[in-house]
Amino acid sequence: MQGDGGHPTHFVIVFSDVSERIRYQDQLRTQAYEDALTHLPNRLGLKARLGDLVNRAADQETRLALVFLDIDNFKEINDSLGHAGGDAVLCEVARRLSASVSLADLVVRYAGDEFVAVLHRGDVDSLVAAAGAMKDALNAGFCVGDTLVVPQASVGIAVYPDHSTDAETLLGYADATMYQAKAIGPNSLQLFDPEIASRSNRRTLMAQALRRAVAGDEFTVVYQPRVNPVTGRTTGFEALVRWYDPERGQVSPASFIPLAEESGLIVRIGERVLEEACRQTAVWAQAYSDLVVSVNVSPVQFERSDLSAVIANTMKNAGVSPRNLELEITEGVMMAPNSLGTLRALRQMGVSIAIDDFGSGYSSLSYIRNFMADRVKLDMSFVRGIGRSRADEVIVKAVLALGRTLGMRVVAEGVETPEQRGFLVDNGCDEVQGFWFARPVEAVIAQSYLAADDLPLPELMTSSEEHGVSSADAVQRH
Ligand code: C2E
Ligand code: MG
Ligand code: MG
């Protein structure tokens, strides 16, 4: 305020206590970086400190491990104890993990039932031992209410600077390694392995290429004859998918089908193979009305698509009769509770069903009792044992007898030698498939097998064999 002469006579001073506001801001920051349940730092808390921790390890020239822990079967624990019980387990796990490391180490609740620890030690062995001690600390039982809980965890470890010098990369490696540990079984611990990482990197790249191939419709279908082993006459074909990738060349279905199943791409690929096989079968069936072409169907197609509707539609569009189509399923499909209805619906339509790779999976005769297939395809691992393993020969004979008794035709897969063929003929095998008779070939060549009365049998092949040409090549030129 100013007086008469314009000089200040009073000052007004405003006091405001900002400590409350600072405390509040601190609290917000703490809340953002801290997990409210366990009071451990959370994911943001880890991100905020990880760079510094790695830099410090670099300055001090020590090693640092990122340890990723995931509680095994936590969902079951949560379901059986309820959320409050699940929370109690998480708090106990947090307490034990913190107590099992030294003061300089950091334990973080990363998400849900995932914890991350950052450990400092001089060498890799000590880091693995320290991570092992964390895991072991969890394994003692304790009671939640009147339920005894024994926590277990899967643990993945990545080490600075051995595996990477970048904090984010190390975290990713530790995470991926934890998944490998989980795949081994509960309570497992794994150290990052660069070889496995490059393999999983190759898989990721292949999955991308596969996605592009699906979009670009880069798949083709080849046909391998099913043959009467006595007469050599072609009775049908198995349709097999082929993928030619510009970078990788011809990729074996054995390596890309599992990947396609994991990613769900098999649904589209399977539909594509089915369309092509049905289109081709409709053409062949005009001249060969008894022909049966089989198409492999993945268990994933049963789970993720309305398979009977897809098949009915595809057959209708192609104008193929159901009696000319067969679906090859693996034993696993018969075990899935929901697929039995689909199988019966397909059978109702008149499509026949073959059990593929019989004997190689979780075979159980009770599944056969529940659902009687039209054909059983004896896995080639048993056929390979003919002439070499008494046990394999006994199994081959038993499956042939089983098929005969239950009225299922038996196809022997992977027949490669005249001895195998002879043994199968002697024991009354209905049909064979294998390189001895013919390899999978393009439709135009396959058609020539239909036109021929028979495929050349071993007796006819001796001269080309002597010249070092395989029977399959001889057949292809036939
Ligand atoms: P699979 O259904 O058991 O098919 C038979 C496989 O054995 C084919 O391999 C065939 O080329 C091979 N093979 C036939 N005869 C012989 C022989 O005498 N010796 C040897 N060593 N092998 C023989 P391919 O075409 O590489 O297919 C491998 C597997 O990939 C198939 O086994 C099947 O499980 C899967 N697959 C192929 N095409 C498809 C498809 O369109 N859909 C699905 N879901 N799976 C498919
Ligand atoms: Mg098959
Ligand atoms: Mg098979």
Per-chain topology:
Elements: H1 19-33, H2 43-60, E1 63-71, H3 74-100, E2 106-111, E3 114-121, H4 124-138, E4 142-144, E5 147-149, E6 153-160, H5 167-184, E7 189-191, H6 194-215, E8 219-227, E9 234-245, E10 249-251, H7 253-263, H8 266-287, E11 292-296, H9 299-304, H10 307-318, E12 325-329, H11 331-335, H12 339-349, E13 352-358, H13 365-370, E14 375-378, H14 380-384, H15 390-406, E15 409-412, H16 418-426, E16 431-432, H17 443-451, H18 458-466, H19 471-477
Parallel strand pairs: 6-7, 9-11, 11-12, 12-13, 13-14, 14-15, 15-16
Antiparallel strand pairs: 1-3, 1-6, 2-3, 4-5, 8-9, 9-10
Helix pairs in contact: 3-4, 6-7, 8-10, 10-12
What structural keywords apply?
disordered C terminus; binds ligand C2E; binds magnesium ion; 16 strands; 5-stranded mixed sheet
Report the helical percentage: 40-55%
Small molecules bound = ligand C2E, magnesium ion
Query: Structural class, please?
Result: alpha/beta
Strand content: 15-25%
**Number of helical regions:** 19
Shape descriptor reads elongated
